[in-house]
């Protein structure tokens, strides 16, 4: 387990844990059952300073890092991985503007995103395949007045609740015939922009996932995020650092939940006239969950600390994303097994943990893609 939290980080964990206990834990099962995203809570997190914590105070943030953000997401995901996903993705929009936006874009949007006054989304994935990032059908056409955006995005978190959206689209092709992408910002209420089909997901049901659609969306000349033609870099940096650390933190919360539920159930359940945890095979399962938590925690907070120090952390975060999200599946499945028949009864949260863990895998890039990134770095 990571043991080197500073005083601020310890305090944030304590405050968020209390908030989650009051506002999230009692409702998480109901949000899952009803497939409801409690979007009203985004503002509560904003008012307490827990959105965009990595943004500097001049733009409304807390001036902290992705380590503090991961601590917040882990605590939320301990009880509702779905709602953590909503917060996680909101911050992707914030991160793209913070890291690549112009001074005007930062001043206009970051305070509203950090306070939760508006909700953000990031639309990159297309029907042609999320792993094949450059294969975009979405077009950004240059006009005399700015740009016109046309396309459809799939599997987009916050699709139906985000007011501020960042899209990637094809703005041209290079001399080798390969697509050149730009990232572009779509302000609230823009004509021609809409949410389409809403997905009925296996897990992460405290978040909304669906299509986003742009039909002849007219945007001004100042709508591009980052340099024109550098949209792939905006997407890769945002997903590679903020997306994967966020998904890993959500997975870590699920592992923690699975560990704690296993211990609680194992102590309460009496079998052969004694608590279940007296059986060595059951102790082994608890040990395995504890080990998964310690390993994932150490990997995640080590990698986020590297990023917060200003060093490159993309390959480390891909390794964490692979390990933590796969470990969350193993841990929740193990707790289900430990509980016997009770493990499949929906009164207990562990079935939801397993569904959340499985649903966690594709977002931010699949396990296969994470291994390609890790191998690419190892073989450099
Ligand atoms: C809950 C959820 C939330 C999401 N939120 C967002 C969001 O907010 N914004 C957004 O833009 N996207 C979002 N996504 C999309 C996500 O990024 C994609 O699902 C992911 O990138 C995979 O793309 P795909 O689903 O098209 O699968 P594909 O890319 O079609 O992959 C299919 C299979 O092929 C494998 N594969 C692909 N290429 C290779 C290769 N080179 N080598 C080996 N195997 C390979 C994959 O690992 C996978 O097993 C979300 C997805 C989910 C499930």
Task: Give the SSE layout.
Blueprint: H1 7-23, H2 28-34, H3 40-47, H4 66-79, H5 81-100, H6 103-115, E1 120-123, E2 139-142, E3 147-157, E4 164-173, E5 179-186, E6 193-198, E7 209-219, E8 224-225, H7 231-268, E9 270-271, E10 274-275, H8 280-308, H9 314-338, H10 350-360, H11 367-378
Helix pairs in contact: 1-4, 4-5, 4-7, 5-6, 5-7, 7-8, 7-9, 7-10, 8-9, 9-10, 9-11
Bound molecules: flavin-adenine dinucleotide.
Mean pLDDT: 97
The H-and-E topology, N to C, reads as HHHHHHEEEEEEEEHEEHHHH
Regarding CATH, which class of the largest domain?
Mainly Alpha
Number of strands: 10
What is the CATH homology-level superfamily of the largest domain? Butyryl-CoA Dehydrogenase, subunit A, domain 3
Q: Enter the CATH topology name of the largest domain.
A: Butyryl-CoA Dehydrogenase, subunit A, domain 3
Spatial shape: globular
Task: Give the ligands present.
Answer: flavin-adenine dinucleotide
- Count the helices. How many? 11
Structural class computed from helices and strand pairing:
alpha+beta
Q: Give the CA-CA distance, first to last residue.
A: 29 Å
Regarding quaternary structure, what we see is single chain
Word description of this protein:
This protein has three domains: 7-119, Acyl-CoA dehydrogenase/oxidase, N-terminal domain (Butyryl-Coa Dehydrogenase, subunit A, domain 1, Orthogonal Bundle); 121-229, Butyryl-CoA Dehydrogenase, subunit A, domain 2 (Beta Barrel), CATH 2.40.110.10; 233-378, Butyryl-CoA Dehydrogenase, subunit A, domain 3, CATH 1.20.140.10. 51% of the residues lie in helices and 16% in strands. The protein has helices spanning 7-23, 28-34, 40-47, 66-79, 81-100, 103-115, 231-268, 280-308, 314-338, 350-360, 367-378; strands at residues 120-123, 139-142, 147-157, 164-173, 179-186, 193-198, 209-219, 224-225, 270-271, 274-275. A hairpin with a 5-residue loop joins strand 4 (164-173) and strand 5 (179-186). Helix 1 runs parallel beside helix 4 (66-79). The model has no long low-confidence stretch (mean pLDDT 97). The protein binds flavin-adenine dinucleotide. Flavin-adenine dinucleotide binds at residues 89, 122-125, 129-131, 155-157, 204, 209, 359, 362-363, 365-366, 368-369, 372. Residues 122-217 form the Acyl-CoA oxidase/dehydrogenase middle domain. Belongs to the acyl-CoA dehydrogenase family.
């Amino acid at each position: 387990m990571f043991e080197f939290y500073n005083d601020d980080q310890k305090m944030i964990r304590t405050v968020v844990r209390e908030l989650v206990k009051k506002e999230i834990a009692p409702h998480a099962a109901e949000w899952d059952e009803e497939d409801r995203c409690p979007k009203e809570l985004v503002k509560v997190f904003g008012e307490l300073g827990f959105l965009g914590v990595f943004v500097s105070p001049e733009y409304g943030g807390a001036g902290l890092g992705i380590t503090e953000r991961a601590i917040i997401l882990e605590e939320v995901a301990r009880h509702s991985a779905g709602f953590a996903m909503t917060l996680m993705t909101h911050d992707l929009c914030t991160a793209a503007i913070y890291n690549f936006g112009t001074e005007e874009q930062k001043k206009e949007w970051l305070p509203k995103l950090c306070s939760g006054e508006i909700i953000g989304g990031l639309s990159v994935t297309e029907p042609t395949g999320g792993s094949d990032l450059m294969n975009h059908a979405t077009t950004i056409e240059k006009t005399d007045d700015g740009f016109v955006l046309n396309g459809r995005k799939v599997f987009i978190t916050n699709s139906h609740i985000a007011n501020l959206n960042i899209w990637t689209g094809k703005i041209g092709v290079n001399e080798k015939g390969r697509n050149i992408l730009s990232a572009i910002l779509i302000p609230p209420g823009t004509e021609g922009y809409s949410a389409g089909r809403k997905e009925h997901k296996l897990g992460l049901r405290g978040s909304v996932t669906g299509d986003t659609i742009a039909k002849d969306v007219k945007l001004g000349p100042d709508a591009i995020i980052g340099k024109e033609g550098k949209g792939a870099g905006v997407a890769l940096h945002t997903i590679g650092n903020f997306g994967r650390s966020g998904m890993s933190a959500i997975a870590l919360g699920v592992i923690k939940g699975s560990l704690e539920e296993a211990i609680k159930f194992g102590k309460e359940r009496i079998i052969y006239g004694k608590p279940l945890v007296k059986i060595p095979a059951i102790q082994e399962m608890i040990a395995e969950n504890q080990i998964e938590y310690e390993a994932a925690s150490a990997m995640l907070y080590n990698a986020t600390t590297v990023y917060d120090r200003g060093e490159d952390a993309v390959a480390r975060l891909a390794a964490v994303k692979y390990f933590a999200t796969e470990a969350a599946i193993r841990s929740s499945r193990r707790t289900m097994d430990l509980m016997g028949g009770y493990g499949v009864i929906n009164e207990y949260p562990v079935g939801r943990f397993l569904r959340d863990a499985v649903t966690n895998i594709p977002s931010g890039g699949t396990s296969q893609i994470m291994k390609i990134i890790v191998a690419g770095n190892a073989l450099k």
